[in-house]
Amino acid sequence: MVDVSDKASTAREAAAEGYIRMAPATLALALSGQGRKGDVFAVAELAGVMAAKRTADLIPLCHPLPLTAIKVEAAEAEGGLRVTARVKTTSQTGVEMEALTAASIALLTLYDMLKAADKAMVIEGVRVLQKSGGRSGDYDADA
């Protein structure tokens, strides 16, 4: 792992997003809450939160961080669903990986919850939207 012991603990935040494209009938099923496995939004959002907390266990050489806030949201988007994840910490290194992990696992959970209806769903566009704090400064993908 990279040695961050000389870095100051500062407030850091990151946001990530991703999309899952699906057939209109599958989207209607997701929005109805009538899927065989239940409320796809609640389960995916919870899975994303749980994943952010386990990022260091999943990604080699990633520092375990004391996360202070995690928010994962899945919502309707054109042609499917969009997941956003926002993660905060006060630490010596950033939380981009935690935000990306949260978004990715939430998307995979949506796939799992809906795969009986549509195996052709496509996960795409997973990226960091924003990050703040740390030596490298702020980043905004849309700026």
Structure description:
By secondary structure, the chain is an alpha+beta fold. It is 32% helix and 34% strand. It is built from 4 helices and 5 strands; from the N terminus they run E-H-H-H-E-E-H-E-E. The protein has helices at residues 24-32, 40-53, 55-58, 96-114, and strands at residues 10-21, 67-77, 80-91, 122-132, 139-140. The protein has a 5-stranded antiparallel sheet with strand order 2-3-1-4-5. The longest helix is centred in the last third of the chain and has 19 residues, at 96-114. The mean pLDDT is 95.
Short characterization:
With 143 residues, the protein is α+β, with helices and mostly antiparallel strands. Helix content is 32%, strand content 34%.
What's the gyration radius in Å?
A: 16 Å
Low-confidence stretches: none
Note the overall shape.
elongated
Strand count, sense and barrel status of the largest sheet are: 5 strands, antiparallel
- The tally of helices reads 4
List the SSEs and their pairings.
Blueprint: E1 10-21, H1 24-32, H2 40-53, H3 55-58, E2 67-77, E3 80-91, H4 96-114, E4 122-132, E5 139-140
Key traits:
143 residues, 32% helix, 5 strands, alpha+beta, 4 helices
